[in-house]
Structures are given as C-alpha cells and as structure tokens.
Amino acid sequence: MNTAAIVKAGARPLEDRTAPMIDPFGRAITYLRVSVTDRCDFRCTYCMAEHMTFLPKKDLLTLEELHRLCSAFIAKGVRKLRLTGGEPLVRKNIMFLVRELGREIEAGRLDELTLTTNGSQLAKHAAELADCGVRRINVSLDTLDPAKFHQITRWGDLGKVIEGIDAAQAAGIKVKINAVALKGFNDAEIPDLMRWAHGRDMDLTLIETMPMGEIEEDRTDHYMPLSEMRRQLEQQFTLSDIAYKTGGPARYVEVAETGGRLGLITPMTHNFCESCNRVRLTCTGTLYMCLGQNDAADLRTALRASDDDVYLGQVIDEAIGRKPKGHDFIIDREHNRPAVARHMSVTGG
Q: Does the annotation flag 86 for ligand binding?
C-alpha cells in the first residue's frame, strides 16, 4: 500500500505515534536489536558457511537511514538498543551511528545503548564507544585456547580479542562474555572459561547453538543442552538461581565459588518466548518480529516513501501486530535442515 492510500485509510495522527508497542500477547516491545551489517571478519563454524555471499553494499541502508529507523522505534517506546552484525565494528563509519544514538541517551529518550562484538576491532574503538555512552557490551568468545579459537572462527586471532577486552575495561565499559556451548569442542573448558571471566569481573553467558542457516557441519554433532551443561558444572560449583536480568533472554545463576554470575540462554531446551520484548532490524531495513520465524516487514520502502514518519509508524505497528508467540527450534537427526534459512549474521542473534 502506498503513502496516499495509507493516509486516505486514516493514518494515526503524528502526535499519536508515541503509543507503546504492544504485541498480540500483551508483551511491550522495548528492546530493538539492529544488525548494522551482515559482514564479519570471522567465519565461526556454527554461525556461517566458510564461503559466505554477503549483501551488495548498495542494498544496505545508509547509517543516516538506520538512525532514522532507530529514532522511530525510540519514539514508540524502545528503551534499550543493541547494535549487532555480523560484526558491527567492521561497518565503515559505524561510530557516526553510535554517536547519534548516544545523543538519545543524553536526552533521556533511551536508557541503554549496547553492542555485541567479536572483539576483533574493539581495541581501536573502545574509548570512543565509552565516550558515546556505551556502558556495557557483550564479547563473543568460545575458547581461551588460541589454536582452537582460530579453528572455530576460521580467521580469528585470540590475542586481538583479549586486547580489545582490555581496552574496553580500561575505558570503563562493563564486559560480558558470550560463549556458545559446543559438545566435544569447548564443553570441558567451560569451568576454566568461567573462572577466567569471573576473575576479571565479567559475567559469562552460555548459549545453546541454534538451527539457523546452512553450514558445512551437522549441528547435532556439537549440540550441548544447557540443562546437561549445568548438571556438569554443579559437580564442581554451587549454582543458585537469582532474579538478576539485563533485559535480554538469559536466566542467571550465582556461582558461590567465584562470586560471579553465569547466564544461560536456552532457545532449544527452555525457550524464553513468554517474556520476549525484542524485535530485530536488519541492515536492509527488514524487521523480524521473531528470531526463529521467517515473517518479516519491509521498513525500507516505508522509510523512503515519505520524509515524515507517519506511514513508517503505521507499518511498524502492523508488524508488531503480527509478532508470533514464539519460535519452533529443533535440533535432532530427523531435522537436519535449519529452522530458518537465513544465517545468524543477518539478524545478529
């Protein structure tokens, strides 16, 4: 439907665009994840194919357009915004967008601006990120063994990631480590990874691998249910469930022996859909209302149809009205195809 048709049908007045976004199940949408690029300087085996075909750069929204979309969501009640990729810090001039969004924090329109990164580019950007109001980041790190790190990332250098973590902490940014638990690869290392993270005052969050995108390996070979991972950890550690939340899907436990927190993200064994407050925007302006479903909304067309946000706001509202109750991830030998064809790098997890 074009702009004129929307207006004729009765678009909401401009002053009503700030009405909160409530999905069909009564969940307020207050968290936007923005994939600023599908490109990455790693090729993690559970996330990407080794020889990826990325979007042509001409198909990407400009950083100014991404900022306008983010601002529209902030005006509609989003209070937390996370930049993801691919690897967000490989996007050319990405700090322009970070600084513009930082002004939303200064103005009190946004509570938190964060990002998820592989850490490879963090050393050169950490100080500026902190200056723009970024107070907390997630760094994806599955192993502290340099050879295994290079193996699973295909291209990564563990030393550069550690250097980036050092720089972020020196800049006053709180770092959380994200690790995908992989049976037969890093499951035996998780206790040492947790001790290392907690020893540096960093939380550790474990994530179950998800069936997204075609990759070379069979995910069932390395799928590790976190219920089993927790059982193994409890042979060495005292884990106590706590109510701590960061706004994301992780459930947290406190580890008595280290004094740190361990998060568990379980899209497979215990999904977190009942409290989902998130939607995901891609670098092409596609809005996914659920990570594990294919339904999406085209915001790029709406964005470029008009200089004001009336039509855009209505398209966003219509999309939120289609947000499903949850996803349908399955990993077993009978379901050897991904639940969704797009790779994790498209929507940033």
A: yes
